[in-house]
Design brief:
Layout lengths: L2 H16 L3 H7 L5 E6 L5 E10 L7 E8 L9 E7 L19 E4 L2
Antiparallel strand pairs: 1-2, 2-3, 3-4, 4-5
């Protein structure tokens, strides 16, 4: 897996969730992860999985977690990224506005 390409793809995918209304993110909590495929610029097909959970307590911040893997051996050890989406950063229309991600974690589970 091209780690640079994978990181760029999953960062873009998580960015789309940061722009969603808080109410939509709440609906994702305690549901099955959203799974889909994305083709990278290199032509590699990546499996994306997005899930959400309460970051600390209900009705507070939401943590959105994204995993990405190609269909090779790395499918058994995908790259994980997460973002804490703060309720306090939502405007009156409940749209959440964020700067570029700077605190995302890159953790690989084995």
């Amino acid at each position: 897996m091209n780690k640079r390409e994978a990181k760029e793809i999953i960062s873009n995918q998580l960015d789309a969730y940061r722009k969603r209304p808080y109410s939509e993110l709440v609906e994702m909590i305690d549901t099955d992860p959203i799974t889909y495929k994305v083709n990278g610029p290199s032509g590699t097909s990546y499996q994306i999985e997005i899930a959400a959970s309460w970051d600390d307590k209900p009705n507070g911040n939401i943590r959105v977690i994204g995993a990405i893997a190609d269909h090779g051996l790395k499918a058994f050890a995908p790259m994980f990224f997460d973002e804490s989406i703060k309720r306090t950063m939502c405007n009156s229309e409940k749209k959440c506005i964020y700067p570029a991600p700077t605190n995302g974690k890159n953790t690989r589970l084995t």
